[in-house]
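Hi support team,

I'm filing this because I wasn't sure whether my run with (2S)-2-hydroxybutanedioic acid finished correctly. The job status page said complete, but I'd like someone to confirm that the output block is well-formed before I use it downstream. Pasting the exact inputs I used:
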Amino acid sequence: LFSAIEMAPRDPILGITEAFNADQNPAKINLGVGVYYDDNGKVPLLACVRKAEAILIEQAAPRTYLPIEGLAAYDKAVQELVFGADSAVIQERRAVTVQAIGGTGALKIGADFLQRFAPGAQVYISDPSWENHRALFESAGFVVNNYTYYDAATHGVNFEGMLASLNNMPAGSIVVLHACCHNPTGADLTVAQWDQIIAVVTSRGLVPFLDMAYQGFANGIAEDGAVVLRFAKAGGPLLVSNSFSKSFSLYGERVGALSVVASSAEEATRLLSQLKRVVRTNYSNPPVHGGKVVATVLSTPELRQLWEEELAGMRVRIREMRDAFVEKLKAKAPGHDFEFVRQQIGMFSYSGLTKEQVASLREQSIYAVDTGRICVAALNSRNIDIVIDAIAKVL
Ligand code: LMR
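And here is everything the job wrote out:
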């Protein structure tokens, strides 16, 4: 049975972490995976998380099964974060939320759910998109297409092209949109552009699936989440996956959620029953710890305040690294214009480095994604000069 099975290709992102881990050079730098590191190069354990964990340890609760849809306090807190506490979809009980195994798990529950009820629909992802989007929707049984998004010449969004793509999609198509901090390009839509996208999605009967893995890393928690509420207000079906991997620095706890907006409370009840079937047949019910940590922080005013401050700190440090990156490259590689890195937003920069240049960087133990995506959140005051020197060398 197994003898003819071929070797699978290495994952385009996590495969880089594997290569990085195997590298014996103590000065190695990983700009591949989307993880925030502090200025000491460490993944932070947020103070709000530590305090919530102290409360949970004190409670010494038994580890029984959670409900299939997850911890009720978590699901409620997520809804309020994603849609805004006083939004109509919550008041009218039209939103349902299930706890998920990270943002990836949320996407997979959503994809499996859609495959059950819209098996013939086409899925559209941005060109380019997070590497796992295509694989994930294909593995759920969909045909996955690209819509126009990035313009390499301007390092921004080809907005007219994007609108044209949306206008050509068959009604009922599923459109995966990055709510903020576009991964991998760091090029986001403006508020006015989003309004146009929402109008086209609604008028053409498309099904928006918002992926929000970086809420709080662009302009703020409420600012970044506002687009979700605007989609919800437009009416029509809506799916939202979100993740606390980055915003709570809880990567390994796998804390995410899928929210689905229905047209009535009664419809929402039916949707939840079906989402529970998808969860039950995938992994039965979610793990306890991460969900409890997030629910505790979000529902305790002092901890929530602390979280907002800590998240703002991460957001500001990334911006500082963008500035430093641009300024230092200006000095080291004067013939090259990297000013666009300052305009990009979130954890990533689509640096424009070619696959060959990325390979040359790897020879110097600096790891980036083959597409040229670098994680700006992995730069710090100690490693940035090394990175800049290496990039100047390969340019
Ligand atoms: C990334 O894009 O690097 C992160 O979302 C981590 C992952 O799972 O790929």
